[in-house]
Fold:
Amino acid sequence: MPASMGDDWWRPLPRGFSPDALRVLAGKSLRAFADGFVSLLLPVYLLRLGFGAFAIGSIITSTLIGSALLTLALGMSAHRYSRRSMLRGACLLMVATGAGFALTHDYWPILIVAFVGTMNPSSGDVSVFLPLEQTVLAETVEPRRRTALFARYSLFGTLMGAIGTLAAAIPDLLGARLGIGQVSAFRYMFWLYGALGGVALLLYRRLSGAVEAPAAAGVSPRALGESRSIVYGIAALFSLDAFGGGFFVQSLLALWLFQAFHLSVPTASAILFWSSVCAALSFLVAVPVSERIGLINTMVFTHLPSNALLLLVPLMPNLELAVALLLLRFSISQMDVPTRQSYTMTVVRPDERSAASGITTVARSIGAAISPALAGYCLAHPRLVNVPFFVAGGVKIVYDLCLYRAFVSHEPGGDG
Structure:
């Protein structure tokens, strides 16, 4: 049995991770907690401000497009600059984003803040932090333990995001106990979002020089060299997957639950919490599974059945069955996340990792940026409210089949 499986594949913190890796995991956890509550509160906050479903979808699209452009710019130039400096700059932008949402209430200012900021409306991470953190993590661990480290990266992020969804009930508690208006209470949560960005900044200030690109690699005039074709191929498929996933990002899934079953915020947050817990547990299982059947096989063979379940969710006659299918789906749908991240870092050279991660992240952001507005349009029309699930499930099944056909022969060896 490979060493990365051994006795500690299931442990939250296996032995051997460096202090730098732990700092990144802590920073990721803080950000995920913040993303957890804002992804649920954002659509409700915008509804309270008087925006319709289409306007909400366009604001969510704006966050994804803005993140994609910034991530692309950083990914293609990151090999020339300090990774630590770029992470600290991203933290400062997170602080400014929280302040921006707390201080604005009109459509166009909110749209602009959403575009230039770090707000993440998804249950997954599509922010500018992702390629920077992935590249740093890849430098902190030996290749055979890379998948295990990325599994913990996803695990901590998802668990803290789940706890963040529970924190979305805080505005209701503040309103009931302190007599604070709901909109005002929401704005306090955006201030908290910015404050957590400040705490992440303190963590990233302590990263060592070991996380920077190897000095021997020099500064190449091109971000991608010999790995260009495989990175572009992976990015195209990841974009297709994200386009499907964008139809039910967490904010829109919450909106669908509100409309389909007339749920309260605390009830919706509880459902999303347990969905995230199921997803988090699957990250750990992905490690031994990928070491037995390979990274690509793990991505495809766990993703296909999860997408079939997604197609069935809106057909359920009551909340209980719909939630049961959602939980079952989330228990297997995210096993491709750490394997996907590990695969990308494994098939490129160390000096190409920033660009590879940036390009694949941008591809996912662009793919996911289009669909929320389309989903918002569907959710605004009673006869179309279930269409996003059918489109998402169908598109993601096509992605799985194309990924297997194109890359099963490019499975990395035992160092992945």
Observations:
- The longest helix spans residues 19-48.
- The chain has one domain: 19-213+223-410.
- Confidence is low (pLDDT under 50) at residues 1-7.
